[in-house]
Amino acid sequence: MSMTTAQVFELAKKQQLWAGHLIAAEQISEASLPNHSPIDNNCIGNIANGNRQDVELAVSAARDAFEHGEWRRMSPAERKVIMQRWCQLMQEHSDELAALDCVDAGKPITECLNTDLPATIETFEWYAETADKVFGKVAPTGADALGLVVQEPIGVVGAVLPWNFPAQMYAWKVAPALITGNSVIVKPAELTSLSAYRLTQLAYEAGIPKAALQLICGLGEEVGAALGQHMDVDMVSFTGSTEVGRLFLQYSAQSNLKEVVLECGGKSPQVVFADALINEQTVEHILSAAFWNMSENCSCGSRLIVHASLKDSLLALLKEGLKSWKVGLPYDPEVAIGPMIEKAHFDKVVSHLDTAKAEGATVVAGGRIHEEVGSGWYVEPTIFDNVSADMTLFKEEVFGPLLAITSFETEEEAIALANQSNYGLAASFYTQNIHRAFRVAAAIKAGTVSINGFSEGDITTPFGGYKQSGFGGRDNGLEALSQYTQTKTIWLVN
Description:
Elements: H1 5-13, E1 17-19, E2 32-36, E3 43-48, H2 52-68, H3 76-92, H4 94-105, H5 109-130, E4 137-138, E5 145-153, E6 156-160, H6 166-179, E7 183-187, H7 194-206, E8 213-215, H8 220-229, E9 235-239, H9 242-254, E10 259-263, E11 269-272, H10 280-291, E12 303-307, H11 311-321, H12 343-358, E13 362-365, E14 382-385, H13 392-395, E15 402-408, H14 411-419, E16 423-424, E17 426-430, H15 434-443, E18 448-451, E19 466-467, E20 470-471, H16 479-482, E21 485-493
Parallel strand pairs: 1-3, 6-7, 6-9, 7-8, 9-10, 11-12, 11-17, 12-15, 14-15, 17-18
Antiparallel strand pairs: 2-3, 4-5, 5-21, 10-20, 13-14, 16-19
Helix pairs in contact: 1-4, 2-8, 3-5, 3-7, 4-5, 4-7, 5-6, 10-11
């Protein structure tokens, strides 16, 4: 039975929301952790607290399912039909799933309903359609042989998810891994496990075998590390911090050299050239890049690099545009900015705010902490001017609503500033000069570069980063399928 948003919110108030393990084995652990919503820091229920034994049971079941179970052996068309049935169930439960992400992550309900859940369903629908439409190859041999190049599922896949887009990141990992015939074990972030739990339950209702898709809740240092270190996990796809991404590379080296795909941090530039068309849409894109999802977004355009001749006029427009970015309880459909995910992260963002002031940056818009709202972890969208490239705010990822403005004079200077980062996930820039557009797009070191607007692309385009933003592969697009498969050559001698 599908719940409405109001029913989910009511259960949250009664501390009756639960996310548990979904493992195809008996005798799983019964330990649990209290789950506090960042909206008001009240307990909304519990999540299971997994351990290494739970991981061992899940991996054993996943391996058996991969070697002997039905999911891998189904025709691609059969897998497609089941996944399409799952998509229909997601559609029927979309209000419920959106509300779960709202209370669990503090995301504005409007964003959950109108952006996250539609994108989640679209991802599953798109990969379902690839099942029987992606082909192998026949090598150009002579008459004495036939050479086939085929893709086979890689095996047991660990999908370790971040907390900022719970349902959507579940889709980005699970959809391509599952449709290619793998056995998948999902480890959601301990801060946001509710929608992953519900999505997996719906998968079973659609007909996906339980051993082919399992869920283990719990802490990263326990469950995530155990997946990374396990000798019978063939591949891990991780989205999260660069620090934890490094650990997964170590886990791979120390265990079975499993494949690892990382999508990590970012410090994305937005560059506005002197010939840019500055209108209402431009202002909306710049603000969305900077503050969408409370800036808890790896591709957040947190560095605004503006030609000196435009800075003052653009800044005035940004300050005016910020007036519509309402801060408040994310239950409210009018709210655009909810809380930071937890107290420790809130403290980190406030520390960056204080450091920017101490280093000489100037607050020109926002800057308030809304301690009177809910948990008190509400940071107003804040614009800092006079940010130089040696300041902490220019260099370090904040993951909170602080936008740094830096001015430039020449195209070469703008490119150098844009690339002056250890990260390279995304970038956007604004110009009406088509020649400049091609030059700058080629020169910026980032996995996704958007021109005259902010975008991460869509499901058809690969998403991932350069430098310390990414490693080993891409999410989305047909490119994502390759990281969940092995390439095999079959050579038949006549």
